[in-house]
Structure prediction request, 565 residues.
Amino acid sequence: MHKALFCRDVQTLWKPWLIFSAILTMYIVVIISMFDPSLGESLNLMMESMPELFSAFGMNNPGATLLDFIANYLYGFLLICLPLVMELIMVNILMTRYLDRGAMAWLLASPNSRTKIAFTQAAALVAAVLVQMAYITAVGIVFAQISFGGELDIGRFLYLNVGLFGLHLFLSGLCFLGSCLFQEGRYALGFGGGLGILFVLFQMLSQVGEEAEFLKYLTPLTLFDPKALAMGETVWPSILALYLGGAALYGIGIFFFGKKDLSL
Amino acid sequence: MSKPMIEVANLTCDYGHGRGVFDLSFTVYQGEVFGFLGPNGAGKTTTIRQLMGFVRPDRGSAKILGLDCFAQSSKIQSNVGYLPGELALMEDMSGEGFLKLIAGMKGLRDPSRMEELCNLFELNPHQRIRRMSKGTKQKLGLVCAFMGSPEILILDEPTSGLDPLMQNRFTQLLLKEKERGATILLSSHLFEETEKTCDRVAILRAGRLAAVEQMQKLRDSRTRSYTFVFPDEQLAQKALAQWGGKGQLEANSLSVTLDNAAGLPELLGIAAECKACDLREKSQTLEELFLHFYGEVQQDA
Prediction:
């Protein structure tokens, strides 16, 4: 890893990080404060009136506890899609815009191997995602304690977030791989963004009806099951698969970047 | 013979449609300033990309300090200063921030050389790069290339965007670097630009090496075209007659082409006698230079 480059990365990433973290904070606070017996009932009524729509977003089982409620309304869709958008933006900042416009030439015209440079950029992305996951975990715990002291099962909530980080390691790895495979911006971002959207759509469709249920085998999002995590079920093999898959995607990206012809 | 620093052998990189470079071979020796001349699209930048290890050759090899330019590029880069032909800087940064980043990437700790170069080019690095003019960006790029005092400098069209004063400073800097012992490869599409600094030049045409020649030899064999303006047509005609009728008369101006410098004193004498009031040198295009040079060689043979 290269220190000077990493410092530069931090300077370029903090703004999008802050914006997305602020948006996520807002959602977390709003959703948690909606956990209220009477409001919950009206939400349940709404859900019953349009079950397909709610289940498309993974919100088909609000459950009884605060954790079930959070897992249902936050971890089924919002905390998957919003960070994914941020990851795509960050990959653009760290890799694609340098490659597309040619500024990468300056980084490569230094006594650092391509592998080292790509590794540094990957490390910056993983760090940004990790810090965000830690942050939203903290916000969740603090706000739940303030609003409903003692209601949140903190142990399982942490487990849920360990799973979420696994998923985002995988998704950000996918975006990163795109930037290593393609030099042109639209293909590089199209790869990660396109597959990400496809995976989310597959999951939504698979949750709606039985005809499309097979689609869940075509999306890695299935490996992250927030409700099962919230119930404390043994799902660590699928979480482990996400971590290993994510690490592999980053590794493959760095490997290809080291070998690729670059027109800079 | 001194140590070979850059060795290119049968280098081919085919981009299709006749673009790219084909079967290029040349060597640049230690302490030499080597010019890479060719019109736009001749393959100068393509060759430089190979030297920088951005692209792998289809065939042949490119080596710097005996190391393969693609596989061992990071080892080579600690001895190389590079200026890209198409400047893509990090627009969101200030000039200063960018210089610091590049110094950090190169592992340079002492900023004194960087400051010296900024002063030399009268560059104010505190500006945002986005707001810089093309010339200012070029200066920033030059500071980056030179700040590590590298053994080898690879400069792709280094004077583009610079005003004549700065071009001059750049030439002085290049000569100083040469004195220091640096090996320099620079590309250009103007013969005049390489004339003052280069020891040898390679001429590229359509991706192929047309010639590698000593600058001295090219300079000597270059034709010279001058246009004299006289106060009136009679004087112009008189001058033409005295010069033996070899020239083109156009109203009161006379254009004369010399094959070499030998006839110049006599020509100037005649012009002075006929009260010439203006003198212009018509610079030769690269193509003309090339045709003249090789036309002559063929006649000799």
User: Anything to note?
Assistant: Residues 114-147 of chain A form the longest helix (34 residues). The radius of gyration of chain A is 20 Å.
